[in-house]
């Protein structure tokens, strides 16, 4: 390839990615060469500015037509733009939390590493969201995974953190192996790694025997990716890893990593498995296997919500709650209604704000008390009324009470499940029932905060970054709950119903 | 249909090798049992064979973890060379694009080396 063809590609499409990768390289070198007494929190602000710059650069690209570089290995369509925006916003908020993070034994030696590993993880997630080729999708997945394995074990002297990193690596590599095996079947049958070419090739398949191989590939990829979503059958790592990992990393795993998991799932499933004809050739394979995805979604919701009832550790409780939320989003994915993209995007937007807001307060309190018991929330209303009220907003939103963003998100998914024919009545009713179950443990935290007497009456000191996160998240949660059309209008004007996803 | 048969036949070879792998030790040990003279019950027959030397201390020895880190570093830069050779040979055909790709690759590894150096991996304490 000569220089002219190389320059003919529109490299500006990759602007956000370039910003992130350059920032992480600079951070690495700075962290290595700056003197020991230099405050590494400055590096965190540098990373934060880089993420903001990437958001600005992405907003500048919103009007662009679909573009691809190097035979679709990088592909910027509206799906990529919409979800990349979520990833970047979530990461910016998590970075603010990370700057203020101060565990009991200190983090001085590794604080710099935190920020650049974080950026490489984000880069992996961004690559996953805008790629039309199995190889780059997989490389992005691995970049995100490997960065987060190290991040989970960042508290080197902490036993729990070590345990969580070890469990994460082992579970993660098993799931990756399963995904890769599934992908190998797809490659073996189609002879290509480009998603468009694969779907074109699969459309012409007539031999029913291939269907079995492809079904096998479908389940392997789905089960493998379930690890990133923390959904059944690969959910058991979540509570242990969430508990042991440093709190900002937990927030990263439960928000950014989960969004990235859904992005790659949708990208692979919708572009490949919706073009495989099964039976008499009228319905695509993805619709034929809907019952199985629906079953997994139902089990995920039930398990996440029911097991959360017994948790006393706040981070474990939120791990199970995040499993349950993955189940809700899987309901939207099962239904495959024409509003699927919109409802999943909106739910994730709401989830970014409500979950990160809650994690900001969790980080504040667990750090202060040095333990993660739910009892430390007792009397929060007395100690800091504003904090208690904002936490209540996040919890109400997570539970899906009207007036908050979480309610609108759930309503959309619910309506989506009923608007298709045949309607998924069972799935929708399981979603309602498990939501009611979730009230029990969410409101348990509320009772602690408002009705239990405090063990101590000391005021809580709010660092600036955490404060900003709490304010932004609370405002966004209520605003999106009262005026959801803000987000939907943004989707309509900029992304045109994701029409350019295929082809 | 043709393609599918071809695809499945490839797995036949895997199956054949699997059978061979299982049969080989079974047959070899069984044949040895048939051929060898019946041995008497001697205690030293049950010990580990160590080239005729009396076995001493535990078989599980701990090595310094630094060997592992050095081995890892070696493998990384070994693989880099493996990638550089074919690139250097086919340089004329690959052109400027491969040159830029290689530069990125080498610079990334260089950062890795700097990281290892600053983290005192290269120093044997």
Q: What this model shows, in words?
A:
The complex is a heterodimer of chains A (503) and B (125). With 503 residues, chain A is an all-alpha fold. Chain A has 21 helices and four strands. Chain A has one domain (10-498). Chain A has helices at residues 3-8, 15-33, 41-60, 78-100, 111-129, 134-152, 159-190, 195-203, 208-229, 237-244, 247-272, 285-288, 290-308, 314-335, 340-369, 380-383, 385-399, 405-419, 425-451, 464-482, 485-495, and strands at residues 67-69, 74-76, 277-278, 283-284. In chain A, strand 3 (277-278) and strand 4 form a beta hairpin. The two termini of chain A are 25 Å apart. Chain B has a single domain, classed as Up-down Bundle (Methane Monooxygenase Hydroxylase, Chain G, domain 1), CATH 1.20.58. Chain B is built from four helices and no strands. Chain B has helices at residues 2-35, 65-89, 91-94, 96-118. In chain B, helix 2 (65-89) packs antiparallel against helix 4. The interface between A and B is medium-sized, with 15 and 13 residues. Chain A: InterPro entries: NADH-Q_OxRdtase_suN/2 (IPR010096), ND/Mrp_TM (IPR001750). Chain A: It catalyses: a quinone + NADH + 5 H(+)(in) = a quinol + NAD(+) + 4 H(+)(out). Chain A: It is a multi-pass membrane protein.
Q: Please state roughly what percent of the residues of chain B sit in beta strands, choosing from under 5%, 5-15%, 15-25%, 25-35%, 35-45% or over 45%.
A: under 5%
**Biggest beta sheet attributes of chain A:** 2 strands, antiparallel
Strand tally of chain B, please? 0
**Rg value of chain A:** 22 Å
Query: What is the domain tally of chain B?
Result: 1
Spans of chain A with pLDDT under 50 lasting ≥5 residues?
none
- Give the C-alpha Rg of chain B: 26 Å
Question: Portion of residues in helices of chain A?
Answer: over 70%
Overall, the morphology of chain B is flat
Overall average pLDDT of chain A: 91
Strand order of the largest sheet of chain A: 1-2
Molecular shape of chain A: globular
Determine the oligomeric state from the structure.
heterodimer
H and E string of chain A: HHHEEHHHHHHHHEEHHHHHHHHHH
Number of helices of chain A: 21
In the CATH hierarchy, the architecture of chain B is: Up-down Bundle
Subunit structure (chain A): NDH-1 is composed of 14 different subunits. Subunits NuoA, H, J, K, L, M, N constitute the membrane sector of the complex.
Catalytic activity (chain A): a quinone + NADH + 5 H(+)(in) = a quinol + NAD(+) + 4 H(+)(out)
Protein name (chain A): NADH-quinone oxidoreductase subunit N
GO molecular function, one term (chain A): quinone binding
């Amino acid at each position: 390839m000569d220089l002219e063809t190389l320059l003919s590609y529109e490299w500006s499409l990759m602007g956000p990615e370039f910003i992130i990768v350059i920032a992480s390289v600079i951070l690495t070198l700075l962290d290595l060469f700056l003197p020991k007494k230099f405050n590494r929190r400055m590096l965190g602000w540098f990373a934060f500015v880089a993420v903001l710059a990437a958001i600005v650069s992405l907003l500048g690209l919103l009007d662009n037509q679909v573009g691809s570089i190097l035979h679709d290995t990088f592909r910027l369509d509206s799906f990529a733009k919409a979800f990349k925006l979520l990833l970047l916003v979530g990461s910016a908020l998590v970075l603010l939390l990370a700057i203020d993070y101060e565990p009991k034994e200190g983090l001085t030696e590794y604080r710099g590493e935190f920020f650049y590993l974080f950026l490489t993880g984000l880069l992996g997630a961004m690559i996953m969201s805008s790629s039309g080729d199995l190889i780059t999708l997989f490389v992005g997945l691995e970049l995100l995974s490997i960065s987060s394995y190290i991040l989970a074990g960042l508290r080197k002297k902490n036993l729990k953190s070590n345990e969580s990193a070890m469990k994460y690596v082992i579970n993660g590599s098993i799931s990756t192996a399963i995904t890769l095996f599934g992908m190998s079947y797809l490659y073996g049958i189609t002879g290509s790694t480009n998603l468009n070419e694969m779907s074109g090739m699969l459309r012409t398949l007539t031999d029913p025997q291939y269907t079995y191989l492809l079904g096998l590939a479908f389940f392997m990829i789905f089960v493998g990716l379930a690890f990133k979503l923390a959904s059944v059958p690969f959910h058991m790592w979540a509570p242990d890893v969430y508990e042991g990992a440093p709190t900002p990393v937990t927030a990263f795993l439960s928000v950014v990593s989960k969004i990235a998991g859904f992005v790659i799932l949708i990208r692979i499933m919708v572009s490949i498995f919706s073009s495989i004809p099964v039976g008499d050739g009228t319905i695509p394979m993805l619709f034929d296997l809907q019952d199985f995805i629906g079953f997994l979604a139902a089990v995920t919701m039930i398990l996440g919500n029911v097991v959360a009832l017994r948790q006393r550790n706040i981070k474990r409780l939120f791990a199970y709650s995040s499993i349950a939320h993955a189940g809700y989003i899987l309901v939207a994915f099962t239904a495959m209604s024409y509003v699927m993209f919109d409802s999943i995007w909106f739910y994730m937007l709401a989830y970014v704000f409500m979950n990160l807001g809650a994690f900001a307060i969790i980080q504040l309190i667990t750090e202060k008390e040095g333990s993660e018991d739910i009892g430390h929330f007792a009397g929060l209303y007395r100690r800091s009324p504003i904090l208690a009220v904002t936490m209540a907003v996040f919890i109400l939103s997570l539970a899906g009470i009207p007036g908050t963003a979480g309610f609108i998100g759930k309503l959309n998914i619910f309506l989506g499940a009923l608007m298709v024919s045949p309607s998924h009545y069972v799935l929708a009713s399981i979603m309602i029932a498990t939501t009611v179950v979730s009230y029990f443990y969410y409101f348990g935290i509320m009772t602690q905060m408002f009705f239990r007497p405090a063990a101590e009456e000391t005021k809580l000191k709010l660092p600036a970054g955490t404060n900003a996160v709490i304010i932004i998240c609370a405002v966004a949660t209520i605003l999106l709950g009262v005026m959801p059309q803000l987000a939907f209008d943004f989707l309509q004007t900029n992304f045109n119903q994701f029409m350019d996803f295929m082809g | 249909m043709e393609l599918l048969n071809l695809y499945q036949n490839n797995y036949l070879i895997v199956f054949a090798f699997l059978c061979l792998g299982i049969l080989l030790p079974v047959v070899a040990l069984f044949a040895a049992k048939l051929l060898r003279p019946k041995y008497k019950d001697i205690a030293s027959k049950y010990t580990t064979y160590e080239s005729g030397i009396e076995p001493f201390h535990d078989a599980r020895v701990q090595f310094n973890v630094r060997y592992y880190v050095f081995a890892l570093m070696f493998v990384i830069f070994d693989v880099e060379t493996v990638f550089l050779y074919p690139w250097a040979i086919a340089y004329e055909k690959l052109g400027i694009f491969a040159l830029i790709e290689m530069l990125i690759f080498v610079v990334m590894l260089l950062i890795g080396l700097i990281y290892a150096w600053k983290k005192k991996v290269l120093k044997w304490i």
